Amino acid sequence: MPPPDPIVLRVCGAGDRASVERLGHPPAVAAILCPSLPRRMAWRVSGTRAVSVAAVERRTGTVLGCVQFLRSRRSPHTWMFGHWRVAPAVRKRGIGRSLLLEGARGLTGARRLYSYVEWDNEGSKEAHARLGFESGSTLRGSATLGALSTIGAATPALRLDAVRTRDWDVLFAIYARAMGSLWLRLHPGLGPRNFLDGAPGGLRAIAVAVARGGPAGKGAAAGLVIWAGTGPVLFADPAACDAGLLARSALQILATRSRRDDEIRLRGLPRSLADRPGPIRFQELMGMPDVRTQWRG
């Protein structure tokens, strides 16, 4: 097959939406990759910095691939990228690599990059690895509370306690283990007072206490639950996380303020949980903590 015509990289515009959909992106994703003026204005007001880059065939104007970069609110030199896709007919010709390398060079002060890949997408994980990205030690996932509550035993007892000021050092340690060392290298400067992107007094957060002998409901904290946006997020200590802990956490959350069809986001999942079929959708962190060293020139 002859090589494609020369390509140019440029920022996506609203007029590219149909072409981006033809790459296989759903309309809602294409609308984010090719934002309208009102959406761009809303992002500016909220402080969101997002840049979508398209690889376009020079002669025909056909969009052959795209990627979007989103700047971290916690670390201005850290950028997440997603929706990285190249048209199937022109894959393995360096277009995906150019989108990331050249796109990242155009970002203001980008020093660190990361993305999340579906656990079973071996092709994407291999593509990240070829470019020098490393994998995180733990997984993240999501599931409905109702489904999660059925995957393990309901005992021993577990209790959700309100967070106290003196808990924050312990909870940050859990957060650090849940997110993994790669995440902390991607977001330097995180600590007990800022790791949840806000003042402790302004968060609706509860600790997960696991029974480890003694009276029911007493024991070491094995996780942290927060309500962020539309649903709960559980940060679990991967050393203590198993199907039973996830099920008991879901049951307790259901007893407080949630419904069975609500989605819970999960952080700190050990890789062993992904070996069994079940309701959890797993993703793997792929990160590059030092872009300037990794990608010279």
Topology summary:
Blueprint: E1 7-11, H1 17-22, H2 27-33, H3 37-46, E2 50-57, E3 63-71, E4 78-86, H4 95-105, E5 112-118, H5 122-130, E6 134-144, H6 145-148, E7 158-162, H7 168-179, H8 181-186, E8 205-210, E9 221-228, E10 231-236, H9 243-254, E11 263-269, E12 281-288, H10 291-294
Parallel strand pairs: 4-5, 10-11
Antiparallel strand pairs: 1-2, 2-3, 3-4, 5-12, 6-11, 6-12, 7-8, 8-9, 9-10
Give a short summary of the structure.
With 297 residues, this protein is of the alpha+beta class.
Structure explained in plain terms:
The protein has 297 residues and is of the alpha+beta class. Helix content is 27%, strand content 30%. The protein is elongated and about 65 Å long. The two termini are 31 Å apart.
* Top-tier CATH class of the largest domain: Alpha Beta
Shape: elongated
Instruction: Enumerate the strands of the largest sheet in spatial order, edge to edge or round the barrel.
Output: 1-2-3-4-5-12-6-11-10-9-8-7
- Sheet with most strands: 12 strands, mixed
The arrangement of helices and strands along the chain is: EHHHEEEHEHEHEHHEEEHEEH
Report the structural category.
Answer: alpha+beta
Q: How many domains?
A: 2
Beta-strand portion reads 25-35%
Task: Give the % helix.
Answer: 25-40%
The CATH architecture of the largest domain would be 3-Layer(aba) Sandwich
Look up the CATH topology of the largest domain.
Answer: Aminopeptidase
Please report the number of helical segments: 10
Number of strands: 12
Please give the alpha-carbon distance between the first and last residues: 31 Å
Runs in which pLDDT lies below 50 for 5 or more consecutive residues are 211-217
Average of the residue pLDDT scores: 87
Radius of gyration: 21 Å
